[in-house]
Amino acid sequence: MEFQNSLNFAKELDAQDPLRSFRDEFLFPQQNGKPFIYLCGNSLGLQPKSARAVLNKQLDNWQDLAVEGWFEGETPWMYYHKELKKLMAPIVGARAEEVCPMNTLTVNLHLLMVSFYRPDEKKYKIIMEAGAFPSDQYALESQVRFHGFDPAEAIIEIAPRAGEYTLRTEDITRAIADNKDELAMVLFGGINYFSGQWFDMEAITRAGHAAGAIVGFDLAHAAGNVPLQLHDWQVDFACWCTYKYQNSGPGGIGAIFVHEKHFGDQDMSRFAGWWGYQESIRFKMEKGFIAEPGADGWQVSCTQVIPMALYHASLQIFEKAGFMEPLRRKSLTLTAYLRYVIREVNLAIGDEQYQVITPENDDAHGAQLSVIAKGDAKAIFNKLVENNVLGDWREPNVIRFGPAPLYNSFEDIYHTGELLLQLSKAAAI
Ligand SMILES: *Cc1c(COP(=O)(O)O)cnc(C)c1O
User: Fold this and answer.
1) Which domains occur in the chain, in start order?
2) Which of 107, 117, 119, 180 would staple 124 via disulfide (CB 3.0–4.6 Å)?
3) What is the pTM of this model?
4) Residues 338-348: tens digit of each pLDDT
5) Bridge-partner residues for 392, per DSSP?
6) What enzyme class is recorded for this protein (predicted)?
């Protein structure tokens, strides 16, 4: 598409956008009596207007039914997670049995590693991306130590080549093949939080399996952002949070995926709790753990109805929007338009003031663009916020803009470019 850097053009794109009405389903934070241009869905998605009603329904159930709510009412709490599973599956390309909402992301990563990181003397190494989100680094280091290995030796981090910001797939797959004899697991982000790079998850999974390793993904920045095919790609396991692109609210419920090929493995080690016990006989309260088949078998504590209700509200919006295909179509155009307006700003000031480090190929990025700003990047970021454009800041010099197709408009993008230009001109004077 030929873009134009004009308000009329942005408005025209909005008029043609089949998802434009979804913006009205969200609440925008305000500053000085004006809503923010919110480009931070990569960090915390906005509140759906429907969240309060869906939450209130469960508060009413609690009020009216109290303990009977577990088995009575429209959505008995005992089975409430099944309502969510149906809607979660299409978002990540899984079967409903393969996903389950539970806990929070890093907790789930630990629980899944208990099952899937089974190192021995020979095969104990883990390959991950350098500069992974710190929680993942800490989780993996502590898991490796828990098994008696030294993280410095057991964890191999793949870094970009000198002068580059993102990873080349061939460097990842080569490292996997080179370490094949000692490799127990490949654990990658789906999309790197800092660079916005979407890794070739299918190629990584294939390479990991060829090396006899388990392959897992942290999909914090990928779930609800890019189309995923976890089942078809044969990914062994994955976990993600739902408060970023999936708008479930701060501290929202986490989620897991376990490929059905692992369901038959009765000997799989896990940290069990009563909610992972076979559902039909759970309340016999008997000795001896028997896992519920499927991802549900990884549940530990009883269903978190209240955070699940908030996630449910958002999942209903995803369903209404037609899940990932229409969202991704808009997202690609939004992000391409953002890249274009940033380029226009650079052209207008005759300098590479803003350098987008996120890859440009459609299959290597999601909604987010990570931008290195020359000069006093923090001051530019602060000015953006002062002027009602809310992206987010990552040390040392990166501004992340994560336009979300459910609630961002092309006009948002146009105004962001216009503001960047004004700020750069003001700084130059
Ligand atoms: C956001 C994010 C987390 C956050 O973990 P929580 O356990 O939800 O606090 C972890 N990993 C990655 C890659 C993230 O982007």
Assistant:
1) 7-35+323-428 (3.90.1150.10), 54-320 (3.40.640.10)
2) 119
3) 0.97
4) 999 999 999 99
5) 400
6) hydrolase
